Amino acid sequence: MNRTRLFVASCISMLTTALVFAIRGDIEAPLREAFHLTAEQMGLIWGPAFFGFTASVFISAFVVDLVGMRRLYLLSGFGFLSSLVVILLAPHPNASSSSIFAHTGTTMLYVGFLMMGLSQGLVEGVVNPLVSSMYSDEKTTKLNALHAWWPAGMIIGGLAALGLTQVNAAWQVKLSVIAIPTLTYMALSWTQTFPPTERAASRIPAKDMMKESINPLFMLLFCFMWLTAITELGADQWFPSMMKQLTGLDGIMFLVYTAGLVFIMRTTIGRLVHKSPFFALTGCSVLCAIGLWMLGALHRGDSVILAFIAATFFGIGKSLFWPTMLGVTSERFPKGGPLCLGLMGGGGFLSIAIALPIIGRNLDQLGPNGAMKALATLPALLVIGFMAIYLLFRMRGGYKAIHLTTEDAETPIRAA
User: The domain that contains 20 carries what CATH number?
Assistant: First the structure.
């Protein structure tokens, strides 16, 4: 096993999932025009990407030890390539319709984004337990480093989309860019041997893994993951469109800018978060609430500097949510193995699937200002929740990671 090569492949596959996210957001307007869709219908078509992500994360959490990480990982690559074919071949309807299933083209669009979501979920379902297993003594640090490649993908995807826009490239060309990193991470991992998950290596039985998933703290964090995910990714998916309406500038610039902030935070501050993750999550929530509310107060004609200041608060605030939540899950519930990581990541994306059409409806009915301010209420609630957990741990002597040993196992695990 070449640990470095597998980590590089994991980073590139994480970049791929973000590239999908960035390009999908950039082509939202031409997609709506080509397929005659409302913003709410676009949200319904994007929804399967997140439902699919959720489903594959949940399923892989249960079968990864049985099927093996390598098979699931390569399957994600084939899924990305297949989804591109389905979307690009979808015929365009001649008029709008009240149902997205009334035309073959919009139905294929729905199926294609579902397949793309399934592939994204397989990546997330494999790389999180893979990195946690390879770097068991520095989980939160390495997971932050891994998930730094999400904003890197957003930056690369955003800049690629912006560059292709300058040469009047069609949305089909922009979407096809996804194939490049997909083929790269498949080539890097094709001949590699993958390790067993940490749970399997420590011979923790499946029943112990299941018990971790009903731990009260885990269940509370699972609920908080919904709010952090909607705050970060629910806003991001509509960010280019809403920022263009609010400022008149190309919205993809703001997406690239905030993604750059996230990359810097995860590769620098991310190394220190393990010392007090709930304090960091509280601070992130405060910044997100301020940033989203400021964005919601913007109007065309306002200073561009003010727009970037608001985006800076939001970009820094959302930076540590996802990897830190996964890091805490891996450190505090190691017996839960891929199941707890899968539930946490899958729950996050399930929340986005539910939130996207709601955000789209808010955008239709309240405009970008109202939609942004509605999102700001979520991190405001998280400030209270994360601060309460931080104070609870402080009263008990501070936050500490739990490490597994073979002594934790009651019986040897049979399938790996």
Answer: 1.20.1250.20
Residue 190 domain-assigned (yes or no)? yes
DSSP helix/strand/coil, 389:
helix
- Residue 290 predicted with pLDDT over 80: yes
Alpha carbon distance, N-terminus to C-terminus of the chain: 17
The DSSP letter of residue 361 is H
Contact 34, 171 (CB under 8 A): yes
Diameter over CA atoms, the chain: 67
Distance separating alpha carbons of residues 213 and 384, to the nearest angstrom: 23
Answer yes or no: are the C-beta atoms of 86 and 108 closer than 8 Å.
yes
Residue 65 lies in a domain: yes
Distance CA 362, CA 64 (A): 38
For residue 250, being part of any structural domain is answered with: yes
Give the pTM. 0.75
The structure tokens listed for 230 are 């909607």
**Alpha carbon distances (Å) from 38 to 34, 308, 335, 336:** 11, 28, 45, 41
Q: How many domains does the chain have?
A: 1
Is-contact 100 119, C-beta < 8 A?
A: no
Other beta carbons within 10 angstroms of residue 232's beta carbon come to: 25
Per-residue pLDDT tens over the stretch 120-166: 889 988 898 888 888 877 777 788 889 889 888 888 887 888 889 88
Q: How many CB atoms lie within 10 A of CB 240?
A: 26
Identify whether 297 is part of a domain: yes
The parent domain of residue 302 ranges over 3-398
Within 8 A by CB and 6+ apart from 246, the residues are 295, 298, 299, 300, 307, 368, 369, 372
How far lies 235's CA from each of 33, 188, 357, 376, 380, in Å? Answer: 22, 33, 12, 10, 15
> CA-to-CA distance for 357 and 402, rounded, in angstroms?
39
